[in-house]
Design a protein that fits this description.
Largest sheet: none
Helix content: over 70%
Number of strands: 0
Number of helices: 12
Distance between the termini: 37 Å
Shape: globular
Radius of gyration: 18 Å
CATH class: Mainly Alpha
CATH architecture: Up-down Bundle
Number of domains: 1
Structural class: mainly alpha
Amino acid sequence: MSHSNALPWTLESLDFNRIDVARVRHNEDLFFLLCSSSFVESGSDLYTQNLIDHFADDQELQTWLRHYWEHEELQHGRALTAYVRCVWPEFDWDRGFNAFWNEYGAVCTAEQLEPCRGLELAARCVVETGTASLYRALHEITDEPVLKQLTNHIKSDEVRHYKHFYQHYRLYREREGFGRYKVFRAILRRVKEIKGEDSDIALRHVFNQCYPQHLGNETEFRRISDRAQGLLRRHIPAGMTVKMLLKPLNLPSSLQNMLEKPLARMSGKLFLH
């Protein structure tokens, strides 16, 4: 598997001075989605290190994680953060991120990873499915040109990351010989984890920073976060999400076709509350 040293795009290729602020500034739901995403992406170095340690003697995968994947994920964080700072300069991003990191850093541990390496790669495919779907949805939601360009860049990166993890997953599946049931269980565990923890922590710390007067008010937090996630759910690319999610199961085509339509109808609920 060959690698290219150059990033597919750079922060410098985005002209933040061209942002049409009036098109996005009023949209609080979009702000919550972008800012929470910037928090998670900016913490990529921690979960990259967890994965590098998990694949201790797989030099090829470790090299890709350390020199390619981590750099691209952190660039996503920098770009999203720069965008948020440009459009909503009054938001104290650093304070919000530090509070998020204190909580997220404590739960983002190696213990969360699947003990079986191949199953962890299946779980990584789930994560990349979620992020590719997220940025594709954000791309559809906005008509602001710079954000449209940025979300398209990130979506393309996440699809490419998915393909890379999937290639390695296939190698480990042959090597470790686990069955489809174990893969299904690993996929389900990671979907639940994403729904219940990662996005929730990030959204909560954006909320806490925006509404300190409602700190600890679960009803008000749910009202704001459900509204933002409702916007996202309406734009989730159903077909793409389901195909990517089912692929590691290596189902017979007849069964795959039978499952795709009903799952596509509920795709908005797969990664969201």
